[in-house]
Amino acid sequence: MLYRLARPLLFCLDAESAHGAGLALLGAFHAMGVSRLLASAAPRLPLRVMGIDFPNPVGLAAGMDKNGDYIDALLGLGFGFVEVGAVTPLPQPGNPRPRMFRLSEAQAIINRMGFNNLGVDHLVENLRHRKSTGLVGVNVGKNFDTPIERAADDYVHCLRKVYPHAAFVTANVSSPNTSGLRNLQQHELLDNLLGELARTRAELVGSSGRYVPIAVKIAPDLDDAGIDALAERVIAHGLDAVIATNTTLSRAGVEHLPASREAGGLSGRPLRQRSTEVIARLARALSGRVPIIGVGGIASSADAREKLRAGATLIQLYSALVFEGPGLVGEIVAGLAQSR
C-alpha cells in the first residue's frame, strides 16, 4: 500500500533517478526497523538447490543493487536469496545518461547501463559488513576496456575476490550493454572462460575447504542450436546452474512505444514468453543435470509457476518490482506455497 502512494512521485523522476531514490527509501525504512510497512513476511518454502538450502525459491535478479549497498534491506523484503552486481574488477561509470527508460504501458524497462559499478573491492567490503545471514549471490563481468580475448582474467579476478563471501557466483556473459560481451557465449570463448572459472574454483576449494557454486547467465536471443551448445559446455565444465535469461534486444510487442527506439536490453512483461521458451529448451538440453534459475517477465505467482513448469527450480524478479512494489515478493512466495 505504501509503495502505491510513493510510486507516482517516483515516476515523476527519470527511471535511473527513481531507481536510486527507491533504494534509498528502502534503506531508510530498514534502518528504522519498519520494513514491514513496505512488505509482509514471506512464508517459508524451503528447497535445496546447488547444494544450498534456500528458504524460498524467489530471488532478486542482479542489476537492482549493483554495489551491494542495500543487501540487508533487500533480504528483509522476504527474498529467498539476493543477487548483487554485476561487478567488475575496476570501478567504471558505465554508459552516458540517460540510460534507463520505463515503458509503463508494457510494464517494461529498457536499460543500457553498461556495468556501472564501484568495483569489486567496494562490493566485498559491503559483503563483509552486512548483518543479515541471508543468501547472496554475486554477478561478475568484465571491464569495458578489457579485450574480449582477455575477458577470463576479469571474471577470475572477481571470482577470487568474492569467493569467501558469496553463496554463489554468476558469470554474466549476456548483457547487451558492454560491447562484444555476448561473444563470450560462443563456443571457443565460452569454453575458455568456463574452463578458467572451473580451474580457479577447484584451486579455491582446495585452499579454503569451501565449495561455492558457479552459474552462467545467458541471453534470451540465443537460437536453439546456441542454447544446446551452451548447455553442453556447462555440463562439460561442471557448472552448477544456468540463469535464463538476461534482457533482450528484441522489441517484439513494444514497437509502437516511443521509448522502444532506445538502445539497450528490454526487460519486464514483454520478455516473459521468450524467457520461458528458452528455459524449456534449456531444460531439455540439460536433462536435469544442472538446475535453471528462471528470470524474465515474472509479475505474479502464475508467472512464477509458468517458469517452474518450464524447467526452472528457482526464479528471480526485478522489473516487476518497479511497477508492483516490494510487496510482490511475499505475494509470489505465498501463491507458490498455496499451489503446492
Average pLDDT level: 96
Strand percent estimate: 15-25%
CATH class: Alpha Beta
Rg over CA atoms: 18 Å
- Structural class of the secondary structure composition? alpha/beta
The number of helical elements comes to: 11
Please, what is the CATH homologous superfamily? Answer: Aldolase class I
* Strand order, largest beta sheet: 3-4-7-8-9-10-12-13
Q: Main β-sheet, in a few words?
A: 8 strands, parallel, barrel
Number of domains: 1
Poorly predicted tracts of residues: none
CATH fold node name? TIM Barrel
Order of helices and strands: HHEEEHEEEHEHEHEHEEHEHEHH
Q: What fraction, in percent, of the residue positions are helical?
A: 25-40%
> What separation lies between the terminal Cα atoms?
27 Å
Gross CATH architecture:
Alpha-Beta Barrel
Total number of β-strand segments?
Answer: 13
